[in-house]
Amino acid sequence: MPEHRFANAPLLVYWEVTRACDLACRHCRAEAMPARHPDELTTDEGFRLLDALTAFRPQPHIVFTGGDPLKRPDLFAWIERAVALGFRTAITPSGTYALTREVVHRFKAAGVWMMAVSVDGSTAERHDAIRQVPGSFDQTMRAICWAQEINLPIQVNTLVCAETYDDVPAVGRLLVELGVSRWSVFFLVPTGRGRVLGDISPHQAETLLTWLYTFSRTAPFDIKTTEAHHYRRIALQQSDRQDPAQRERLAVVRRGFTIRDGAGIMFISHVGEIYPAGFLPVPVGNVRTHDPVAVYRADPLFVALRDPDRFRGKCGLCEYRIVCGGSRARAYALTGDPLESDPLCLYQPPAWPERSAVA
Ligand code: SF4
Fold first, then answer.
1. Which of 10, 153, 247, 266 is the most exposed place for a label (fewest CB within 10 A)?
2. Tens of pLDDT, residues 185-222
């Protein structure tokens, strides 16, 4: 297997600057609480982390996430340092009343490249039922408008689980009206509070991902999936049946196809632990005691996650394992082994000995 494209540097470093948040989302990976954890990284430790990450070449993008990053009073100092060091930065604030017009404009002034917000329902009733705070939907809609006033690109993240499944197409149509830049459709991994929400079946996932691909052909924004990498397999299968222009477009998209947990992605927790991804909470070091660059490049788990020939079960034999490889986080959450197959994928690779007829 040739060296992975992201063997030396991730494309995305997610830094969970705090787990504090005033929302109580039913699917929260971080199991966020209103108060900050006493052992969060200090301001100076955060500066040192940013300095350490400059050793990556090319420089990754840094996503300031949480919890609600706005709970950290030193957030803007870190953003400004990251921008001054040359990192492209994004921010994922929670849809609370702390996310004011002034704050959104300040993100832009500080050099933030993109703001990501969550829209988990096509109506206030459906969204707020997931977020468990009335008014969250309306505040998020206002924040999107404030970002558009200043041409700050918006990514919308949408949760897919049993409770939201039927509403996802309506969310997509809402985003067309809103004029966002990117839609990230997140297929629930049962970690944190997400364990209490319902899973969808592999058949439902296949149906929704196929719809998503069809929708992507006319949607005026980029679409990506989170923890449903087999969208790439479906896109390639569908594109074989499409026109040459569509195949050309996919060839460009394909350059990012090899990204997945630990391969192009690294996650730093609120207390400095280093994970292959936020939904794959296996600590392999701590930035207080380890060089995050060395951990990303050489830790055995990171190295294994970048080698799809080491995946087990049907993912390890699948002809799409390089571009897809399945969700390592879901494999870990449901089997305890991050190299196992992704249970949400319906596909039966021809090389898989247990292949059976698929309805
Ligand atoms: S079997 Fe695994 S590698 Fe193949 S398409 Fe499904 S999730 Fe991806």
1. 247
2. 999 998 776 566 778 999 999 999 999 999 999 999 99
Whether the bond into 169 is cis, omega within 30 of 0: no
User: Tokens 């966020």 sit at which residue?
Assistant: 32
Q: Domain locations in the chain? A: 12-308
Residues of the chain with pLDDT under 50: 252, 357-359
Q: Is 321 in the pocket of ligand 1 (CB under 6 A)?
A: yes
Cα(330) to centroid(ligand 1), Å: 12
Superfamily the domain 12-308 falls into: Aldolase class I (3.20.20.70)
Q: What angle do CA 209, 213, 217 make, to 5 degrees?
A: 160
pLDDT given at position 248: 54
Does 318 contact ligand 1 (Cβ within 6 A)? yes
The residue to mutate among 189, 312, 320, 332, having the most atoms of ligand 1 within 8 angstroms of its beta carbon, is 320
pLDDT at position 33, please?
77
Q: Which residue's alpha carbon is nearest to atom 1 within ligand 1?
A: 315
pTM above 0.70, yes or no: yes
End-to-end distance of the chain based on CA atoms, in angstroms?
Answer: 33
Report how far ligand 1's centroid is from the alpha carbon of 343 (Å).
Answer: 9
> How many Cβ atoms from other residues are within 10 Å of residue 81's Cβ?
17
Quote the ligand 1 centre to 338 CA distance (angstroms).
14
Say if residues 162 and 199 touch (Cβ distance below 8 Å). Answer: yes
Q: How far apart are CA 58 and CA 264, in angstroms?
A: 11
Reduced to 3 states (helix: H, G, I; strand: E, B; else coil), residue 142 is helix
Question: What is the pLDDT at residue 359?
Answer: 35
Closest CA to 211 of 183, 169, 251: 169
